[in-house]
Write a structure and sequence with these properties.
Low-confidence stretches: 225-236
């Protein structure tokens, strides 16, 4: 469920009373690369106190509701935003953003960079070094001019090369979760690079959006996710024949519980599932008893 400020770099999930009030909830602005004209994007500016204050208030209300009604602790993880930031420019160009960009880099970030200078992400350290390892100054003075910006998606997202900035600014965020959409036979081992980059920060690797098919199935074994579905192998259809929860002791599997059908059903839209050569069942991993599972698969159809 997304209800906050950003979903895939836009603010389409914000409520109508936020969308309609441009004065109270200002948008980010971007510069058109072809015309050099500044345009307003349909994405809330992160530099507006009204924007982030209302976002925080709504998030806190949802968390309070979950605490009150979720007596069985069905909810085990909460994703605060999804692919935050903006598309179409290297940064927000609104007046509020320009004012912050021209101001000194916050002392908290500069202190962090100096304290962790030798452990910083190589890309971030290289940019800082090229600008002379300054210990104060504006953003361009400390990190240099980079009109193209960084990132392979919405600018401002927690990509691995800015994890150190995120750790300094938002130390209570538990994980930075990348998408793992990697297709093609030549990309089969790209998951190794991705997990290496995203665990360098010292936080767990976690992804809830990943490639399906043969490559995705291989990745699911390499990098466990919250929901690891059983994928088809070419034209062969497979389902779960047996599902066990347990643990390893001295390298041996110790069964703690046999899991039933309700533990494996993921989808009920059978026509769509069949069209994708999938069974609709899979492995649901969660903390506690179902953290490690062993399964047997069968072929059908």
């Amino acid at each position: 469920m997304w209800f906050g400020s950003w979903k895939n770099g836009v603010s389409s999930f914000a409520p109508p009373w936020v969308k309609a009030d441009y004065d109270r909830f200002p948008r980010a602005q971007v510069v058109d690369a072809k015309t050099a004209v500044t345009k307003t994007a349909e994405a809330l500016s992160a530099f507006s106190e009204n924007n982030w204050a209302e976002d925080a208030r709504a998030f806190a209300a949802v968390m309070r509701h979950i605490r009150e009604v979720d007596r069985t602790h069905r909810v085990i993880l909460v994703q605060e935003e999804n692919e935050i930031g903006i598309f179409g420019d290297s940064r927000d160009r609104s007046p509020l953003a320009n004012k912050a960009f021209a101001a000194p880099v916050p002392a908290e970030l500069m202190d962090y960079l100096q304290k962790h200078k030798d452990e910083l992400n190589p890309d971030l350290r290289k940019v800082w070094e090229a600008a002379g390892f300054k210990t104060s100054g504006t953003w361009e003075e400390v990190f240099g001019k980079n009109p193209k910006g960084w990132g392979r998606g919405p600018r401002g997202e927690a990509f691995d090369h800015v994890h150190d900035i995120w750790k300094a600014a938002a130390p209570r965020v538990d994980m930075y979760c990348p998408d793992a959409y990697m297709g093609g036979q030549g990309d089969a081992d790209h998951i190794v690079e991705l997990t290496t980059r995203y665990t360098r920060s010292g936080k767990p690797f976690f992804t809830v959006e990943a490639t399906d098919g043969e490559i995705g199935a291989a990745h699911a074994f390499y990098a466990p996710t919250l929901l690891a579905t059983v994928y088809s192998w070419r034209s062969v259809r497979m389902g779960l024949a047996q599902q066990e929860a347990g643990r390893f002791e001295d390298g041996k599997w110790v069964l703690t519980r046999y899991l039933g059908g309700d533990d494996s059903i993921l989808r009920y839209d059978f026509a769509n599932i069949a069209a994708m050569n999938q069974s609709g069942n899979g492995v649901r991993l969660s903390a506690g008893e179902r953290a490690i599972q062993r399964v047997k698969v069968y072929r059908y159809g």
